[in-house]
Queue: 2 jobs
Job 1
Amino acid sequence: DTAVSQTPKYLVTQMGNDKSIKCEQNLGHDTMYWYKQDSKKFLKIMFSYNNKELIINETVPNRFSPKSPDKAHLNLHINSLELGDSAVYFCASSRTRRTEAFFGQGTRLTVV
Amino acid sequence: TQLLEQSPQFLSIQEGENLTVYCNSSSVFSSLQWYRQEPGEGPVLLVTVVTGGEVKKLKRLTFQFGDARKDSSLHITAAQPGDTGLYLCAGDSGQFYFGTGTSLTVIP
């Protein structure tokens, strides 16, 4: 029974398209995140939500919009995809912002 | 964003050797976590250190938090191929920020 699951695992799309990545956690955690891991393996936080409310929005283009329909779900929608958006995107959750984060398996996004 | 520099960036060693990975910052952290990430997977927490000078052991892995809570180290004794992976430190300054990562390969 996967704790943090995200779909799809792989996503290949053309420049200019709009795509969404879904994330669900069954741990009962209050906080969820989206991270971007680039080709150099640097893991950078994009967004942090606490009880469906946006807490952190790091410097991310407006083309990226997170949506949290409920505490267990945090989806990421990306408009007008660019080549530079190619990366692995990780969803994670934690009980609070200062405790252990549990990560999904990642979504490898390739923009061609 | 708090910058945590990890060194070395890449490390390739023979099975049985010892190694140390460093995580350094100019910022003070309330606590610091170490994660390991295997290919195709998300990071998994290894340990959290909270007190300056704290040392924690996890089998062959020894973690130390600097006295000033600005840096940390991870020492692996007698490395095994199963230790291969990306090691990430993450510092808590109200929110956890990840380090630049150390990619370890242990050759059988």
Job 2
Amino acid sequence: EIVLTQSPGTLSLSPGERATLSCRASQSVSGSYLAWYQQKPGQAPRLLIYGASSRAAGISDRFSGSGSGTDFTLTISRLEPEDFAVYYCQQYGSSPFTFGPGTKVDIK
Amino acid sequence: QVQLVESGGGVVQSGRSLTLSCAASGFTFSTYGMHWVRQAPGKGLEWVAVISHDGSDIFYVDSVRGRFTISRDNSKNTLYLQVSSLRAEDTAVYLCAKALTYGAHVRDAFDIWGQGTMVTVSS
């Protein structure tokens, strides 16, 4: 099983700032099958990034993904008020398709 | 519009069974892989199971294998999860999710999610 570790656990930033979220895998993620999701309280997760760097339909270009192998990054270039949420990475290269524990981005 | 609606959750005693359903609409259900994911109260996401578009490929997380069964009825546009031998640690919101890509291998991101159905296991 591939274990995903996300850091930091919580990121306290102000609107307009840049957010950099890390996701590290215990072994290489095949095919860069790595996704990022955003979840707000009481809502279902929303797909942001798939294939490590491809933006999902309708997702702002403020969101970008990068990385390969075992190290991946989600960057939010300029935080908007609606971006404060929990972000999960997930690998879907090999079963079980594990999620990371999440990074909470909250308002400083 | 594309929509997934889960149902079938409730309060159930430890050791008992339940069948969860996920009704799909707004897309050609029979051509997409489908997943179940769960989220315990206040916790993160845990992937549970996947079934390919035609039911030929099925995978489970170890903690539910042998107790949970994923299935689908493409004629009814519905995904199912039979959960049995329930334990306290199975208490969670169960969400169904659609694979991103038409006819893809089960290895795919999830682009559409339902709102979930709550399963509470009581002792």
